[in-house]
Amino acid sequence: MNSAGFFEVLENGLIPYTQHLNPSRRYMQDNDRKHSSKKVKEWLEANKINWWKTPPESPDLNTIENLWHEDKEYVRRVVKPQ
């Protein structure tokens, strides 16, 4: 996915859905180039989206990284790939 594709998902799906659920939620994304493009940043600010600007190279602050770790551990323990 490129920046334009991510922007379309953000604008037409993710943000409207999460804002509908709870307007006070904070939006968090990592520093992938498509997530931090100028167009995305300007759109988030213009639409007053409450988003958390994470520092570069900070996987410890990215909650999805913890979930990936748990998934990998589960596969190692339970599935035990050959």
Compact summary:
The chain has 82 residues and is mainly α.
Instruction: Characterize the quaternary organization of these chains.
Output: single chain
Low-confidence segments, given as residue ranges, are none
Overall radius of gyration: 16 Å
Domain unit count: 1
Q: Characterize the main sheet.
A: 2 strands, parallel
Label the overall shape.
elongated
Summarize model confidence as the mean pLDDT.
Answer: 80
DSSP, total strands: 2
Strand content: 5-15%
Could you give the order of the helices and strands? HEHEH
Termini separation: 31 Å
- Identify the strand order in the major beta sheet: 1-2
**What is the count of DSSP helices, taking H or I runs of 4+ residues?**
3
Helix content: 40-55%
What structural class do you assign from the helix and strand content?
Answer: mainly alpha
Domain Tc1-like transposase DDE: 2-77
Pfam families: DDE_3
Protein name: Tc1-like transposase DDE domain-containing protein
GO molecular function: nucleic acid binding
Q: Which tags fit this structure?
A:
two-stranded parallel sheet; mainly alpha; 3 helices; 82 residues; 55% helix; 2 strands
